[in-house]
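Researcher: Please translate sequence to structure tokens.
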Amino acid sequence: MNILLNHILEQLIEIQNGQNWIGGSYEKKLNRVSDELIFIRPKKDLHSIAEIISHLTLWRKEAILKIKTGKGSKTDDCEENWLSNNQLKLKGWKNIKSEYDSSLYELIKLLKEKDDQFLHEEYYDTDFKGNFNYNFLLKGILHHDIYHLGQLGIIIKYLNDKTSLS
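Model: Translation complete:
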């Protein structure tokens, strides 16, 4: 039986491109933004859309590594955690978004090969410096995605307000 894992997968997919009670999905929000706004920080202390998506991709790839090997490699302090807009502009929005989408599909594919027992297996978390079960990791990914989905909503609102005043 994969009741728990399927529930996690459903939530992950709904947050990315489904109909959420909390509002729009990543797909819905990102489709409302023109490419010229992707690298703009609407306020000094808010990240750009590109920075958020790159950050999410890093942690999703880190989750994939943990699932595949039982150990992570990144910490909050690593340089890749928050790449600058200048670094991200060199990559280009198309590549950033493609990596983001690919990491989602890879995570989903990987989890579909698992069963509920997997959620109780442990991995070593480099950032938290200890052993945790995969249920902790996957709930963390979901919470992280939801948190930043809310941030994206605020960022997009600021960007749209600024451009409508111009």
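Researcher: Any highlights?
Model: Strands lie at 122-125, 130-133.
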